Amino acid sequence: MKNIGHKIVFLSFFVLILVQANAQRFPKPEFESGYEQPSPTTPEPRSNALEYLDVLILFASLSLASWLVIKRRSRRGVLWLSIFTLLYFGFYREGCICSVGSIQNITLALFDPVYKISITVLIFFLLPLVFALFFGRTFCAGACPLGAIQDILVFRPVSIPVWVRKALGFIPYLYLGLAVLYAATGTDFIICRYDPFVGFFRMDGPYTMIIIGIALLLLGLFFARPYCRVFCPYGVLLNWMSRFSKYHMTITPAECISCKLCEPSCPFDAIEIPVSEKVRTQKVLRQNLKRFSLYALLIPVWMFIGGYAVSSSHVLLSKAHQDVYLSELLIAHPELKSDTKNLDIKAFLESGKTFDELVANASLIRAKFKSGGWFLGGFLGLVIGIMIMNQFVFRTKTIYEPHKGDCFSCGRCMDYCPVVKLK
Amino acid sequence: MAEDKIIKRREFIHTGVRFALGISLAGIGVAAARKTTAEKWVWQIDPAKCTQCGRCATDCVKSPSAVKCIHAYEVCGYCDLCGGYFKPGVKKMETGGENHLCPTAAIQRKFIEEPYFEYVIIEELCIGCAKCVKGCSSFGNGSLHLQIRHNLCDNCNECAIARVCPSDAISRVPASQPYIIKGDFHGGTKA
Ligand code: SF4
Ligand code: SF4
Ligand code: SF4
Ligand code: SF4
Ligand code: SF4
Fold it and tell me: B127, B44 in Cβ contact below 8 A?
């Protein structure tokens, strides 16, 4: 192994000398005909001022969405706003950068000592969450291009059984956890890579993602907002902010009269129906309390199992990292070290890094996955534990209300309520 | 009245949690703020690291790629037998298509004076395949090299080429200095 290292060092020296020689291979001519040497053109990137304008527009759409749904109570207004968002943040800004993907930039900035982010990215991450803390998920209602493209294609929504919804509700947590793990280890930005709609916004992209995008939009005709409900990792954060929001929208402008008219109005099954008195007998309540505490006690066990399981799959998870992949490949097939057809190997040989360095770096990254796996698994265990525990929570609910976490504040249900506010 | 108490208590808990969530958001904000700059960041290729693998042409989310060949004239030798223009081993230095190394004939050869020729990239034709770059750096001065063109690039949150570049040649640079051009290039004309 040492020997190969030496050879590579030698080889890289050789390459280095070659490169140095390159620069002087042919001297720059001295022209006599008065030829003026042109300069390469350097078209500027989109100006920084425009990025700040984007922040301003985000702030404006969030404020407008919140006002429209909470004060004006206008579904039509929200609809127009989401069309604007779709055009501006979607088709014009081509989907980048969005708040959903910014999770990864923030994570990487927190973990990587040299990675820097622009302040606009940080604002894109924080602003919708702060708004959710006060007004609910108004970002989803009118400022998210991914939400908007799905929302305008809600055609004939069907109601999904509660248990299916609960089970699917676990996926966003998993997605969020993986996205953070992959971003923190500097492996990949999976949210951006598997963004199903950015291909539409750009009218270009890998065809697999375009197909998945089309499939999701078609599914969305019946299963409204599939990406939001089953995948969106940012939705997890918004959900939790919104649950404790101060001024969340309500279905009725005044007092709910339990007329049930709004019951079928929400395409996302986000309306909570009052719990019937029968279920709330003292006996049932006491029994539930017992189960609730039992399952609460089980949470640490779930966390440990989750942590152990994910951490032990760190070998598999870390394969996505380029260095880990390459070193594994070279360890398993040492004969490939001279394979100049493999671009990755060839570039590695030319880079002048030694094999030992590569392996050392790969095991460092793998160690990060191992410890990160405990956090991710623990987090997922906690989520599962709480989900199970919550089966036994019965809220004493007497009126029709949106579930503050799941409701996208789209405003559809408001039009179904017959109650009018008396001045 | 008991109901009232329950509602009050629930409201109190909600306010508490809301504050806790707000504080955690502020915490993330402060922690991340130390890594923020007022400036924007864009992706660029370091020509010193690029090994001309060809993935720039195939892996950009744009088609054709936002990566184009640029010519750092400063470093060019204006050779008659250009390693970036001609296929290796051409018999006669004729500008016929069969002699072009570039698959799209995106390089224009112009006579300047004996024995010097100027080579200009026609950007609309270039697909960023790096074939000429390879030729130029193996047989010439390496004045042809790839750059991400910011009028074409979408500035993806994570550049799709950076992810697969075997040489780690693509990284983010401050938007005020968005190009890494060989030779002592300062500014230059702006398109
Ligand atoms: S759930 Fe996610 S994708 Fe859907 S609207 Fe909200 S932030 Fe956007
Ligand atoms: S505002 Fe909320 S509860 Fe009402 S229809 Fe929209 S998502 Fe459903
Ligand atoms: S992917 Fe990397 S090595 Fe390949 S041509 Fe582009 S910059 Fe060069
Ligand atoms: S050989 Fe490839 S990189 Fe060079 S000018 Fe032609 S298309 Fe562009
Ligand atoms: S940032 Fe996106 S558009 Fe720009 S070069 Fe990379 S992949 Fe292409």
Answer: no
A100 and A226 assigned to the same domain: yes
- The shortest C-alpha distance from B43 to chain A (Å) reads 10
Q: For chain A, state the CA radius of gyration.
A: 27
The two three-digit tokens of residue B102, written as one number = 């570039």
> A321 is in which domain, residue-wise?
278-390
ipTM above 0.90, yes or no: no
Q: Does residue A16 surpass a pLDDT of 50? A: no
Give the residue, by CA position, lying nearest to ligand 2 atom 3.
A402
For residue A209, the number of C-alpha atoms closer than 13 Å in the C-beta half-sphere is 18
pTM of the full predicted structure?
0.90
Nearest CA to ligand 3 atom 6: B56
Same domain as A309, residue A228: no
Residues A301 and A239 in one domain: no
The reply to whether A102 and A175 lie within a common domain is yes
| pLDDT at residue number A278 | 61
Cα gap A238→A364, rounded to integer Å: 34
Interface check A247 vs B, CB under 8 A: no
The pLDDT tens digits of the residues spanning A331-351 come to 998 888 877 788 888 888 877
**Any idea where the domains of chain B sit in the sequence?**
1-36, 41-174
Inform me whether the C-beta atom of residue B30 falls under 8 Å from chain A C-beta atoms: no
B189 contacts in chain A (CB < 8 Å): 39, 41-42
Same domain for A184 and A65:
yes
Per-residue pLDDT at A8 exceeds 70: no
Q: Number of structural domains, chain A?
A: 2
CB contact under 8 A, B36 and A343: no
Closest ligand, as measured to the CA of B68:
4
**pLDDT at residue A6 greater than cutoff 60:** no
Percent of chain B with pLDDT over 90: 65
Q: Does A337 lie in the same domain as A236? A: no
pLDDT band at B185 (very low <50, low <70, confident <90, very high): low
Classify residue A7: in a domain, yes or no.
no
Q: What tokens appear for B50 in the block? A: 């690029």
pLDDT, residue B1, reads 53
Q: How far apart are CA A102 and CA A88, in angstroms?
A: 18
How high is the mean pLDDT of chain B? 89
pLDDT of residue A336: 85
Question: Is A2 domain-assigned?
Answer: no
How high is the mean pLDDT of chain A? 90
Nearest-CA residue for ligand 2 atom 2 is A407
For position B189, what pLDDT does the model report? 38
**A269 within domain boundaries:** no
What is d(CA A65, CA B128) in angstroms, rounded to the nearest whole number? 43
For residues A88 and A175, membership in a common domain is answered with yes
Q: Are residues A90 and A167 in the same domain?
A: yes
Beta bridge partners of A313: none
Ligand 1 atom closest to residue A140's alpha carbon, by position in its atom list: 5
- Whether A235 contacts A172, CB under 8 Å: yes
Q: Reduced to 3 states, what is the DSSP secondary structure of residue A308?
A: helix
Q: Is any Cβ of chain B less than 8 angstroms from the Cβ of A118?
A: yes
Answer yes or no: is A309 within a domain: yes
How far is Cα B111 from Cα A153, in angstroms, rounded to an integer?
59
Report the chain A residue with the minimal C-alpha distance to residue B41. A118
CB contact under 8 A, B39 and A206: no
